[in-house]
Amino acid sequence: MNIAENPTKIIPIRASSLSDLFDCPARWEAKNLLNKRMPAGARTRLGTAIHEAVTQWDHMHLIGETVSTEECSEILHQQIWQPNEEVDWADLDQNSAESIGHALVNKYITQIAPTQKFIGVEVRCESLILADLGIELTGTIDRIYENDEGELGIGDIKTGKTSVGSDGVVKTSGHTPQMGIYTVLAAHALQESVTAPARIYGLTTAKTDKGQHVGIGEIESPAEVLLGTEEEPGLLHHATKILKHGTFYGNSKSMLCNEKFCPAFATCKFRK
Question: Average per-residue pLDDT in the chain?
Answer without folding.
Answer: 93
